[in-house]
Amino acid sequence: MKTIAITGASGFVGTLLSERLCASGYRVTGIGRSGHHPLSDRYENFSWVSADTTFKGEWQDHIAMSDSVVNLAGRSIFGRWTSKYKKAIYDSRIQTTKNIVDALEPGRPARLISASAVGYYGDRADETLTEEKKPGSGFLAKVCVDWEKEAVKAEEKSVSVAVMRFGVVLGRGGALSKMLPAFRAGAGGPLAGGRHWMAWIHMADLLSGILFLLENQSLGGSFNFTAPGIVRQKDFAAELGRRLNRPAFLPMPGFAVGLMLGELGDALTQSQHAVPQRLEQEGFVFDFPDLGAALREIIFGRTEGKSWKGSDNN
């Protein structure tokens, strides 16, 4: 039974990935700051290590002994971006990744799959962003560039590295859970005009994509983890309102976004038309390429010809 270590295993993506891998027969070692993980009570092939991965420690021994590592650690970007909070966003990603790579022994684990984000590209208007495009500017772009740079250093130890640039992950929790109250109240709508492109991915496709990379260890480099059916933010708002049967036309001007969210507001209105060119070229098939079907499954638990079963354990 192969062992996979997951940093950030108690987060939105990490919890569901751990559950998916355990159910698929892998032995999973989850690593994160929580004192306990609920999957410890449900799966014999799941073990939990409580640690702050921004610091070196005994948790690194579990990295060294694993067959593969999935690095998902990182402080949520959804908070007031004070200098202290921005440092936490940065350090939780870069320092953790440095510590993971330091723990690796040459050739073992054979695989490191590390998260990044489409924030790598910065604000790019209508430019189509495939994986070979150069990075943009701004705080999130710098975080992503440095994050990826640390992960790729594992190749010096003969470890195969793949980097996942996540779009907005849609599932029962995460960013969507923060949007739903306003939209259900009929107060949702376009942000700052809503013409910026919003790269997104359904949680089911994200999890399947990670398994795809785990099972195809020769695939290295960067991958946009974004759905083919990318939309502008105003169209996302309209579709979400339609699925909820609520109006979604109340605009929030750019200055209001900035007043409410500060620098985070600027990041949320960046335009990233990031397409999953490499995943599709390698033969990965999306279950939810279309936004309408994705929202229908998440909100109502019904699919349109699909069979994926999600989890409410977010």
For the structure shown, list the relevant keywords.
single chain, 314 residues, alpha/beta, Rossmann fold, 7-stranded parallel β-sheet, two-stranded parallel sheet, 11 helices, 13 strands, 38% helix, 17% strand, globular, disordered C terminus
Description of the molecule:
The C terminus is likely disordered. α1 crosses α6, α3 runs parallel beside α4 and α7 packs across α11. α3 links the parallel β4 and β5. The chain has a domain of 203 residues: 3-Layer(aba) Sandwich (Rossmann fold). A seven-stranded parallel beta sheet has the order 3-2-1-4-5-7-11, sandwiched between helices. A two-stranded parallel sheet has the order 6-13. With 314 residues, the chain is an alpha/beta fold. The longest helix has 21 residues.
